[in-house]
Amino acid sequence: MYLWKYWRESRIIFGISMLGIAVLALLVFKGVWYIGNNSGRPDPRGIAQFFIISVYLQVPVFAFLAWVMGSFGVGRDLGEDSGSFLLTRPQRRYWFLWRDWGFGFTQLVVVIILVNLLIGYLVHGLSGAGGGPFSGTIVFGDVFSPLPLSAAMGLNCLTIVLFAGLIFGVTYFSTIAMKHARGIMLGAGIILGYLILRALVKHYWSVDLPSLLLQAFDLSPLSHNSMGLSDQLGLAVALRGAVVLLIPLAAQVVLERTEI
Amino acid sequence: MSELVVETLSLVKRYDGYRNKSVTAVDGLNMRVERGSIYGFLGRNGAGKTTTIRMLAGLAKATSGSARVLGLDLAMDTVAILERTGFVIDKMLLPSMNGNDLLRFNRGFFPHWSDALAKRYAEALEIPMDRKFKKLSHGNKTKLCLLLALAQNPELLVLDEPTAGLDPVVTDQLLRVLVEDFANDGRTILMSSHHLSEVEKIADWVGIIDQGKLLLEARLDDIRTHYRRVRAVGERLPLSAPESLAVSSAEGVTEYVVGAGADAFASELSSQGAIVLEVLPLNLSEIFLVLVGKENHVPVEVLA
What pLDDT digit, counting tens, does each position of A121-152 carry? Predict the structure, then answer.
């Protein structure tokens, strides 16, 4: 029943997301149909660039969605003075927290997967669905080592999932720390603060702090990977995954110590 | 010896304040609530009642000391305690849910939850279950909070000022449900309040707390039977007495409030040459005033 409570709070946002996906699907299907009937020979580099641009187009959308979703759950309840009711239900505090986080994150992942399936479908249409040398693949690096479209889609999904997970987690943590849904402003402040810090460090010390977004592909001519994948991609994914999981853990520590 | 459902041992709650100044909300509390009793936990605003209840509910951690609820260690077995105890603390549920949603939400948490009880109390207390919680009146909000606590079929009900801000009709409805339905089953109620007349009406035990310290814990019947005010005039009267709660002197009259043996004490005073003016029984309000002793803050009902 607890998940039902979270669902009640977040279902409007999830519903709007689904509506957006339906509209996107219509556009994609129409676009693929148009491409199928009118396009000439596809340019594999252009498709790769479109694919990467599609990640950046998703960033503001999912940043906002994750930010809003992060405002639901125990932190909001504390702000509405429902904490003494909720936390006298016979469960440990982490039980509430991980359900909030898990269910909210799952909803985000579902939306991200659906959007990226549509993008994949569009790219599949662009790259020559009916056959051709690059059908079902994407050329990021060497033309002789194209990346299967499914793998590229998976990496895109992962990139956005890790990014959205970070924003969602930071916002959720902030609502717990502030004991109020207003914590989403703190969450936004933390993210913006990091971006400013990163820019300053880069400007004054020429040091690159990690980007908020996983850089899965390396299209530079100096890339060591023939398929155009970034160096140490596995390590980068593992570290970002760990950070995404560490944030709710930190929220748990804060919630366990919070006096209601 | 009766089984204790709540027992605190030297319970302390201290809040750190500005510049290392700490505030002690609960100061070495030793409280004992017997099974089957209705325990009125009395004190002025800020006396430490709510902090104590929050600690018992696991919402706040004790700075030191320990507590057992239903025989379970509060620090170790919080979940088991919450399964068997109904807490009504802030009278705030989930504001966007209506009564029926709240029943649906709540029932999954409690192994002894009873839909039949919920339905019965909803009808008896006339709660509009299809209205969102945030749109209910204060009285209906309180009633719904109580309904949820009762429907979980708890062994112990802990209520923080349940009748605060309620009109007399709703107050009467709630007290009837508590006494006639809940406590008659041999279950325990621990209820904080500063409405002494209500507590005097339903409680069989009282604990009076002030500045975080428990000043008195006794059966209400014992208070009625044994607690006396003894007023005497004379020279060199003792400034203390056995079992005395308070001694004061004004305009040549010395007044003793004793918890037991008032007649014997009066005789002793007479034998010492004093003139005993009167030996009077005390009600709960008078005891409360004697103990808390703040003349400027006399409860309205006492003045009335």
Answer: 888 887 765 556 566 777 776 666 777 888 88
Q: Do B108 and A1 touch (CB under 8 A)?
A: yes
pTM of the model: 0.88
Per-residue pLDDT reduced to its tens digit, B215-270: 999 999 988 888 899 999 988 888 777 778 888 888 888 888 888 888 888 898 88
What burial class does residue B255 get, using C-beta atoms within 10 Å of its C-beta: 0-12 exposed, 13-18 middle, 19+ buried? Answer: middle
Helix (H, G, I), strand (E, B) or coil at B12: strand
Q: What percent of chain A has pLDDT over 70?
A: 89
Taking each continuous run of H as one helix and of E as one strand, the counts in chain A are 8, 2
B141 with B39, same domain: the answer is yes
CATH of residue B41: 3.40.50.300
Instruction: Judge if B121 and B202 occupy the same domain.
Output: yes
Range of the domain at B264: 227-303
- What is the C-alpha separation between B143 and B120, in angstroms, rounded? 13
Q: B244 and B211 share a domain? A: no
Coil vs helix vs strand at B10:
strand
B265, B241 Cβ separation under 8 angstroms: yes
Same domain, B267 and B282: yes
Same domain, B89 and B216: yes
Same domain flag for B133 and B52: yes
pLDDT-derived band at A40 (thresholds 50, 70, 90) equals low
What three-state secondary structure class fits B228? Answer: strand
Residue A258: DSSP 8-state: -
The alpha-carbon gap from B260 to the nearest alpha carbon of chain A, in Å, equals 40
Measured CA to CA, the distance from residue A203 to residue A226 in angstroms comes to 31
Which uninterrupted H or E stretch holds A131? none
Q: List Cα–Cα distances, A57 to A36, A69, B31, in angstroms.
A: 24, 19, 63
Per DSSP, the residues of B47-85 read SSHHHHHHHHTTSS--SEEEEEETTEETTT-HHHHHHHE
Domain boundary among B193, B221, B249: B221
Q: What is the dihedral of CA B103, B151, B80, B180, to 10 degrees?
A: 160
Cβ within 8 Å, pair B87-A84: yes
- Identify from A6, A72, A85 which residue to disrupt to test chain B contact, counting B C-beta atoms within 10 A and taking the largest count: A85
Determine contact: A141 vs chain B, CB below 8 A: no
Q: Chain-centre distance of CA B278, in angstroms? A: 31
Q: Which of A143, A104, A115, A106 is nearest to A28 (CA)?
A: A115
Report the distance separating Cα A109 and Cα A103, nearest Å: 10
- Are residues B145 and B193 part of one domain? yes
- Whether residues B118 and B237 fall in one domain: no
